[in-house]
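User: Run a structure prediction on this.
Assistant: Running it now.
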Amino acid sequence: MNIELRDITIREVVEGYVDNAEEGVVGYGGGLDIRPPYQREFIYKDKQRDEVVRTIRKKFPLNTMYWVMRPDGGFELMDGQQRTISFCQYVNGDFSVEFEGMPQSFHGLTASEQSQILDYGLSVYVCEGNDREKLDWFKIINIAGEPLTNQELRNAIYTGPWLAHAKAVFSKSNCAAYLLAKDLVGGSPIRQEILQTALNWVSGGQIEEYMNSHQQDPNANELWTYFQNVINWVELTFGCPKNYRREMKGVDWGALYDKYKNVMYDAAALESEVAALMADDDVTNKKGIYPYVFSRNQSMLSIRAFTGNQKREAYERQNGVCIKCGRQFNLDDMEGDHITPWSKGGKTVSDNCQMLCSDCNRRKSDV
């Protein structure tokens, strides 16, 4: 890989600057792709963005930036997108920055102040090499700063027509996937989190393998159809959107769909059971209710344990004798157990607590 350090002014970078939002950003007379396929969307907060401009006004150095030379002679911005868009937007007049207590836009500055910004020199390393070399370097230089998400890194590797379509559906603000599933799927579209969820569902966790096998597909219709099927199944099964609850967001719906999609469920009966479990104080993991009503795996509910006082009360009542084996133990060697199991209506209250030795409680749990 060839790497060359160049001194490039802001004036050169902002020439021909065009921001088509999520469709792309270019500068440097059209020769610099500021947001190539592997880059994230603009995520700087106003304070971070303003500090970039203040740094330039104070003539302090910005961190080094990295560009990649393309075969056609143009460049892709590998690292420094957030800083570059910040000063481009300022020069473009998109926002003002407070200096000495007064908000000032670029166009409100004097000619000399504007020139000071435009003539500011950026330290830019330009690299030239094959795709693997460039992507390996990309991962290294992104260890610092605001780290890329795992899916953003995957996007850097598996670029192509499939990814372009997938990002249009899953990775834009108010994209189709977000509008369809915002009450069931957590995460930010522009940070690729909804895309990652969809890929995790369809691939059973084998995201890289799935992206690699579909990289050159003309579209992501298979992924989008699967995602819609999952969401539609959830809505039909639980009577959504009327019965949306915040606990539904983030459930592994893909795995549940794959396993239970061919089973017929009564939506009204499920809603009644879910409502009862939501109101049960002994159920401490409310999000686990949804997988529980399919699997009946009680561990998903994290049933509330007996308190220390409740266990002490039962221990004294039993004189330290294990109810099962009849031997006496120290309190620390015993565990609280429901006399009437929670699954049969027993509550986590003092009157329903009995103390078992660890061995007896383990054997009881294994039955």
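Residues 156-303 form one domain.
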